[in-house]
């Protein structure tokens, strides 16, 4: 009866284990000799031109653009007296936010304040925070009331008999609504 004495050879699990094999040094020397002894092969002209063009294109490509400056995720405006200015007699405003187009304001109206009639080239949102305001021949808004005035609407003169603090958001710059 004949028995086979074949031994199974397994490849190493990791490349770092190759150096531990008894023939690793000889294999490395043989590989070095083959690589260094081989004559360079010149690529075909068309292939060489494509490779050169690709390398040059990468070398002269514009640098990647810097990431845009990120806006802060939360903006807090203190309730201080800073930033307020008199837009009209007895009406002080403070811009609290703009995205470059839309603008948000706090508006403080003293008792007896009046704002002229005006057209709306864009939308306006209004929340009365304190006091009250009224439009001549139109609505009266008290603390807590909300009003949306859409593009194309006409506002009559605004009056505040008691004084008021109002939050306004305009879909366009305030200067397109009123000439200040």
Structural class: alpha+beta
Instruction: State the CATH architecture of one domain.
Output: Sandwich
Strand content: 25-35%
Largest sheet: 9 strands, antiparallel
Stated plainly, the CATH topology of one domain is called Jelly Rolls
The CATH superfamily of one domain is identified as: Jelly Rolls
Describe the structure.
- It is a single chain.
- With 180 residues, the protein is an alpha+beta fold.
- It has a domain at 85-175: Sandwich (Jelly Rolls).
- The protein has 2 helices and 11 strands.
- Strands 1, 2, 3, 4, 6, 7, 8, 10 and 11 form a 9-stranded antiparallel sheet that branches. It has a two-stranded antiparallel ribbon with strand order 5-9.
- The protein is rod-shaped, with a radius of gyration of 39 Å.
Throw out a few tags for this protein.
Jelly Rolls, 180 residues, 11 strands, 17% helix, nine-stranded antiparallel β-sheet, two-stranded antiparallel ribbon, 2 helices, alpha+beta
What's this, in brief?
This protein is an alpha+beta fold and 180 residues long.
What's the topology here?
Blueprint: H1 24-37, H2 45-60, E1 85-88, E2 91-98, E3 103-109, E4 113-115, E5 118-119, E6 124-135, E7 140-142, E8 146-149, E9 154-155, E10 158-160, E11 164-170
Antiparallel strand pairs: 1-2, 2-3, 3-11, 4-10, 5-9, 6-7, 6-8, 6-10, 6-11
């Amino acid at each position: 009866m004949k028995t086979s004495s074949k031994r199974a050879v397994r490849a190493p699990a990791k490349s770092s284990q190759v150096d531990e094999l008894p023939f690793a040094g000889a294999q490395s020397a043989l590989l070095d000799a083959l690589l260094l002894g081989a004559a360079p092969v010149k690529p075909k002209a068309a292939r060489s031109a494509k490779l050169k063009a690709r390398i040059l294109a990468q070398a002269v490509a514009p640098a990647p653009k810097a990431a845009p400056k990120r806006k802060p995720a939360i903006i807090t405006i203190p309730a201080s007296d800073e930033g307020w200015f008199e837009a009209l007699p007895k009406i002080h405003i403070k811009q609290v936010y703009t995205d470059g187009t839309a603008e948000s304001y706090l508006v403080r109206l003293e008792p007896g304040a009046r704002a002229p009639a005006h057209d709306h080239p864009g939308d306006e949102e209004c929340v009365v925070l304190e006091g009250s305001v009224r439009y001549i021949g139109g609505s009266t808004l008290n603390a807590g009331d909300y009003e949306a005035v859409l593009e194309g609407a006409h506002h009559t003169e605004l009056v505040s008999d008691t004084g008021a603090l109002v939050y306004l958001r305009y879909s366009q710059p305030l200067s397109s609504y009123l000439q200040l």
